[in-house]
Design brief:
single chain; Isopropylmalate Dehydrogenase; 6-stranded mixed β-sheet; 11 helices
């Protein structure tokens, strides 16, 4: 199976058991708009943790239907996060979503060793893009969480992503390891790490995917470009996931997709006991909805 478009996540979400989103500091017009639309489409419902008066004011001003959504009063945003996290830990919610609270406060509660949502050693961000110029959905990691991952961290990022693809019905995703060139250069860590990870995949140390690298961006998205350079690759031109060498590269590519490529994106953080949604105020309404659908599909 391949992900042809982001609507696939809506179909998957509707086919699974009903999901509830715990929203930390829910007094956010963008988040409330996305959540009410998700509820309307039958993707998920929500528990709103935050300032009740502000939530109702936003709902009235934006004409949002929040009837049927439970509200837990908490006027201090930083304290709303652990309350939302506890809803996940107690099995009352299945997805955590960031509202009007700082990212540092949000992640501090998620990563709390005693009461947080840690599952493995590493959290990682993944975005799925619907771009008119590519023949299927293409994903990118990690544009928001890990700054300069070393070899071990890169393998953990890949394993998080592979687990997600498997949950979405893609049994053997094709993963391209991004680098400036497609040959190993000892002075470029991105190429040496890519070559090692590719060999780890071939030797069965990283399973459930087809991995190739180092690959320059043109080789990742174009089979013709790879063939022109004499590269034989099962990944080139049919990549499901791009693994960037660092956050600068991934973040620039992410924003290039959305701003220049006019892509719609669905993004979540992986590696916790529940998927985590952090939408940006610059995300389109469709992107926000698709991020919720992605989390509900996980």
């Amino acid at each position: 199976m391949k992900l042809k478009n982001l609507d696939t996540f809506i179909k998957i979400a509707k086919s699974k058991s009903h999901k509830v989103i715990a929203i930390a500091a829910a007094e956010d017009d963008n988040v409330l708009s996305a959540v009410t639309e998700a509820k309307k489409q039958g993707i998920a419902s929500a528990i709103l943790v935050g300032n009740k008066d502000k939530i109702h004011k936003i709902a009235d001003e934006e004409n949002l239907d929040i009837a049927g959504l439970d509200i837990i009063e908490e006027n201090i945003p930083a304290l709303a996060v652990p309350k939302a996290v506890s809803l996940i830990r107690d099995g009352k919610a299945h997805i955590l979503m960031k509202g009007m609270v700082g990212t540092a406060d949000f992640l501090r509660a998620v990563l709390n060793k005693e009461n947080g949502l840690r599952e493995g050693d590493l959290l990682s961000h993944i975005g799925f893009f619907e771009i008119d110029t590519y023949h299927k959905v293409i994903a990118l990691t990690d544009a928001a969480q890990n700054i300069a991952p070393d070899l071990k961290e890169k393998t953990d990022i890949i394993k998080n992503a592979v687990k997600a693809f498997h949950r979405f019905g893609v049994d053997n995703p094709k993963i391209g390891l991004l680098a400036p060139v497609e040959v190993v250069n000892p002075k470029m860590v991105s190429t040496t790490d890519a070559a090692l990870i590719t060999m780890m995949n071939k030797r069965g140390q990283i399973k459930g995917a087809i991995i190739d690298g180092p690959l320059a961006f043109d080789n990742i998205v174009s089979k013709e470009a790879a063939e022109h350079k004499g590269l034989l690759s099962d990944v080139a031109g049919d990549t499901d996931l791009i693994v960037a060498p660092n956050i600068e590269t991934a973040n620039a590519l992410y924003k290039s997709f959305t701003y220049f490529g006019k892509a719609t994106v669905a993004a979540i953080i992986l590696g916790a006991v529940a998927p985590i949604v952090l939408t940006s105020r610059s995300d389109s309404d469709r992107s926000k909805l698709m991020s919720i659908a992605l989390a509900a599909s996980y």
